[in-house]
Amino acid sequence: MSERVWRLVIGVLILLFLSLNDEDIVISSYVLNPDYALLTLIGWLYFEGLTNIRLTKIISWFRWKADYIMEMEKAVSGVVSSRSINFEAERMLRFAMASVLLACVYPGIEAYYPDVVVKVLWAIPWLVGLMLTSAGLTSICPMLMVFQWLGFKAHYH
C-alpha cells in the first residue's frame, strides 16, 4: 500500500464517520458508534506517528519483502538537506491530522470554546477528510509539501 492510497482510505473513513454522526453502524451483531470509531482512528494516527510503525510500511514489507524496504530506507537516510529535521514528513503529517481532528471532535469540546468558535469547528474535520481524499486521488498533499519545505525528511517510496 502506498502513502497515496493510505491518504485516500483515511480521508474516506473520516468523511464516512463524520457523515454518520448520530447513527450507529451495525455490523453483524456489533454496534459501532461513529464518534468512537473516529477517536480510534485518531489514536491510530498518533500511534503511527509516535512509533513509525505504519500500516503502509507493514504492507510494503509483505509485498516487497524486507530487502527492498531496507534499501529504500538507506536511500532516504542518505538524502539530507542543509536544514533537515531528522523526522519524516509523513510522521509529522499523522501527528498534525490527529491533533487537528482531536481538537475539533473531542467529546465535550463545547465547554472549552465560545459558541462562535464551536460553530466554525465542525467544518475543520470535514476539510481534513476532503483534503486527504483529494491528496489520495491526485497524489498532491499540500500539508506534506509544507512539512518537507520546513525541513522534515521526505519519504521516497
Please provide a brief summary of the model.
It is built from 7 helices and 4 strands; from the N terminus they run H-E-E-H-H-E-H-H-H-H-E. With 157 residues, it is mainly alpha-helical. The protein has one domain.
Q: Count of helical segments?
A: 7
User: How would you describe the oligomerization state of the chains in this entry?
Assistant: single chain
What is the average of the pLDDT values?
A: 79
Question: What is the strand arrangement across the widest sheet?
Answer: 1-2
Taking all Cα atoms into account, the compactness measure Rg is 17 Å
Category by helix and strand content: mainly alpha
Please give the alpha-carbon distance between the first and last residues.
Answer: 10 Å
- Whole-number tally of structural domains: 1
Q: Beta fraction of the residues?
A: 5-15%
- Name the overall outline: globular
Order of helices and strands: HEEHHEHHHHE
Secondary-structure blueprint of this entry?
Blueprint: H1 3-19, E1 25-27, E2 30-32, H2 34-51, H3 55-78, E3 85-88, H4 89-105, H5 115-121, H6 123-138, H7 142-150, E4 152-153
Parallel strand pairs: 3-4
Antiparallel strand pairs: 1-2
Helix pairs in contact: 1-2, 1-6, 2-4, 4-7
Please give a handful of descriptors for the protein shown:
7 helices, globular, about 160 residues, single chain, mainly alpha, two-stranded parallel ribbon, about 70% helix
Structure description:
The chain has 157 residues and is mainly alpha-helical. The chain has one domain (3-153). It is 69% helix and 8% strand. The chain is built from 7 helices and 4 strands; from the N terminus they run αββααβααααβ. It has helices at residues 3-19, 34-51, 55-78, 89-105, 115-121, 123-138, 142-150; strands at 25-27, 30-32, 85-88, 152-153. A two-stranded antiparallel sheet has the order 1-2. The protein has a two-stranded parallel ribbon with strand order 3-4. A hairpin with a 2-residue loop joins β1 (25-27) and β2 (30-32). It is globular and about 45 Å long. The protein starts with a helix and ends with a strand.
